[in-house]
């Protein structure tokens, strides 16, 4: 899967503005908040992972204690997003000026936007791969999807809903740091290597079973 670089971002035909520039414009009002948040997510200091997990654990502990309904939870999330969407740009315009924004910060901000576009590209590639598999090998696609959903249903029957959401949110929040420090690449590499070895063993054993 090819990564998106600042020089290889597809251009919008109707506006002539690159996808990267459009994303930078959309996030322009939040850039002063995005940079320090990115430092925390990427574990630039050793205590940042503990802070992230501690904050998430505290939040879910409050939810577990109060036991709000699903509608109340969604409403509170919506209210929080609306407040952030209004407060952050307003405070940024008062506290920060464009003259204080340096070239180094602009490069860091652009790098974050590039990684967001890379994630979007990876998700699109996975979707396209599944569509191609469905078109070319429908039986394999059906077995893959049925197996994946069966595993998810089995996991869901073992764990509480709130615990599942907590584990999912904790994993997603820790992904940037795991990726930055090479832990995620190491684990995925080991998994892909184990799967490839398993497939090679099956291919070697298949002719023997036919001859017998």
TrEMBL record:
<dbReference type="InterPro" id="IPR057282">
    <property type="entry name" value="RETREG1-3-like_RHD"/>
</dbReference>
<feature type="transmembrane region" description="Helical">
    <location>
        <begin position="48"/>
        <end position="66"/>
    </location>
</feature>
<feature type="transmembrane region" description="Helical">
    <location>
        <begin position="140"/>
        <end position="156"/>
    </location>
</feature>
<keyword id="KW-1133">Transmembrane helix</keyword>
<protein>
    <recommendedName>
        <fullName>RETREG1-3/ARL6IP-like N-terminal reticulon-homology domain-containing protein</fullName>
    </recommendedName>
</protein>
<dbReference type="GO" id="GO:0005783">
    <property type="term" value="C:endoplasmic reticulum"/>
</dbReference>
<dbReference type="Pfam" id="PF24456">
    <property type="entry name" value="RHD_RETREG1-3"/>
</dbReference>
<feature type="transmembrane region" description="Helical">
    <location>
        <begin position="162"/>
        <end position="178"/>
    </location>
</feature>
<keyword id="KW-0472">Membrane</keyword>
<dbReference type="GO" id="GO:0016020">
    <property type="term" value="C:membrane"/>
</dbReference>
<keyword id="KW-0812">Transmembrane</keyword>
<dbReference type="InterPro" id="IPR052114">
    <property type="entry name" value="ER_autophagy_membrane_reg"/>
</dbReference>
<feature type="transmembrane region" description="Helical">
    <location>
        <begin position="72"/>
        <end position="97"/>
    </location>
</feature>
<feature type="domain" description="RETREG1-3/ARL6IP-like N-terminal reticulon-homology">
    <location>
        <begin position="30"/>
        <end position="198"/>
    </location>
</feature>
């Amino acid at each position: 899967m090819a990564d998106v670089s600042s020089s290889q971002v597809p251009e919008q035909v109707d506006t002539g503005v690159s996808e990267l520039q459009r994303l930078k414009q959309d996030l322009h009002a939040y850039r002063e908040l995005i940079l320090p948040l990115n430092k925390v997510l990427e574990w630039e200091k050793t205590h940042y992972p503990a802070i992230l997990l501690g904050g998430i654990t505290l939040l879910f502990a409050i939810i577990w204690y109060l036991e709000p309904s699903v509608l109340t939870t969604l409403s509170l999330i919506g209210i929080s997003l609306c407040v952030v969407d209004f407060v952050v740009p307003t405070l940024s315009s008062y506290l920060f000026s464009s003259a204080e924004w340096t070239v180094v910060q602009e490069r860091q901000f652009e790098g974050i936007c590039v990684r967001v576009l890379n994630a979007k590209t990876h998700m699109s590639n996975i979707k396209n791969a599944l569509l191609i598999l469905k078109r070319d090998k429908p039986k394999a696609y059906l077995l893959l999807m049925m197996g994946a959903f069966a595993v998810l249903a089995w996991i869901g029957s073992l764990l509480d809903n709130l615990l599942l959401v907590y584990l999912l949110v904790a994993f997603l929040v820790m992904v940037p740091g795991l990726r930055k420090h090479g832990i995620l690449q190491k684990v995925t590499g080991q998994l892909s290597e184990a799967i490839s070895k398993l497939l090679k063993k099956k291919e070697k054993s298949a002719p023997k079973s036919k001859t017998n």
